[in-house]
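Reopening this ticket.

The earlier resolution said the output was attached, but the attachment link was broken on my side. Pasting everything inline this time so it's all in one place.
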Amino acid sequence: MKRRPDKAVHKVVKVAMTLIFLWSCFFWSGVTVLNFLINDTDFSYLATGFLVGSGLVLISLILCWLRFYFIQIIPCIAGLIVYLSPAREMIDRAAKIEVEFKPSFELRYLPIVAFGILSLCLFIGKIYLLFAERAKKREEFDNMPTESVLDKHHDE
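Inline output:
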């Protein structure tokens, strides 16, 4: 069975997810991980959280591009939980001090929530398409022409 090509909406959502990943997980998480591993090793557990969370989100993104929408939701949710834990701690610490960060930690780390929402949309869309396809096949089966019982009896 040959797979149908992706719809334009799916492609746009995947590109948006990729851009969000590059901004939050790859760039800002990478900068944070390097900073904590090189300059401030007291908070290396935060670096580990960002690294593991980004890895899980990357797995989810790869599965998304491979169109495994049912499977990709699992590493996405796990990655969001692991990623947002150190992000929350960094945002809380930044709120306590008087230094203003450009861009703010919220703009650095929280766009990953939009990644999760888009991932959930793809998951729900896939479920909808499966039910729609099943309903279409059932409708075709129910409306198939059949041989009449009277015609069968009359032929004998």
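Reporter confirms the inline version is readable. Residues 8-155 form one domain. The helical segments are 8-38, 44-65, 69-96, 105-109, 112-142, 149-155.
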